[in-house]
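This part of the workshop introduces the protein records we will be handling. An example says more than a description, so a record of this kind follows:
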Amino acid sequence: MSRPAPSPIYTLRGAGGALNTLHFSCQGGDTPLLFSGSGKGSIHIWNLNTRRALKIVEGHAGSSVIWVSTLQSTDALISQGRDMQVCLWDLSEGRCEVVDSVWTGSVGFCQCSTLETSPGNFLLAFAGEQTEEIKIIELPSKSQVCTLVPDAKLGMVMCIKLLQVRSGPLLVAGYEDGSLLLWDVTQRSRLSLVKAHPEPVMCLTFDTKRLRGISGSSEKKLSSWTLDRQNNLQLQGCVTLVNPGVSQLCVRGDGKLLASAGWDHRVRLFGWKKLRPLAVLQYHTDMVQSVAFSDHQDPRQRLLAAGSRDQRISLWSIYSEGGDTG
């Protein structure tokens, strides 16, 4: 049975548009930060101590910002916009300027994914100009690694996630026909294909410690799956939701909690081990499009952020939920 739902500890307003993406950076220095990307093309850098925007930057010519992240070892921000550009920002010493960019050619909403391969070097995966195409490059050199195109007709690539396992970097992708496809990045080859949903895969996430992932779509179901020792995807089970539609999924760093961003304006919390429902967070008045757990070193400081089409970000303290997650 679900627990009584808490209330947000505070909210952030002033994004000026629908919130498409959120990313925490709370381990560097004394100022915990939250980055947000809006439908109006702005990136807000929120100071979580003052609960105000530290900086507001524009880098995608007013086009919707659909993904933001940080490259930890290089003090850099990376952002993706509907202008088909991925921008690399220099944040060091108070600067905030675009130092490089990558043209993707993608007209879809598929968010990029990064993976650090060595200090200062990253893989960047993004949807390409062709609807089923995924391109992977190295940063900062921008050298081409591979282009991944499935043999079967799976439709548009909807979501991607780079993974680091013992055998090397892998990529799991969700497609328009509901399929999940696992790629070996080094060998540029297809490893495994499963049909996880009857509808397009809208979002997915993966826990590399447990070799387990979960995906969502426009239906009333989350699909759980694992990666076996032969690097095959195995469908494991599903969670039935009250209302259809999931925008994003996120597993907390300690592997205890799963959060889902719902089209029904709600955030749902599950125990990640058994996918047991824990709480339904109700605050927003429109579709929740992004959820993110903070990376505070102190577990008692960890937060959950949710961004919505209602132009607000809600912050929730759910540390107490971690004791009995089941």
In short: Residues 116-240 form a domain with the Methylamine Dehydrogenase; Chain H fold (CATH 2.130.10.10).
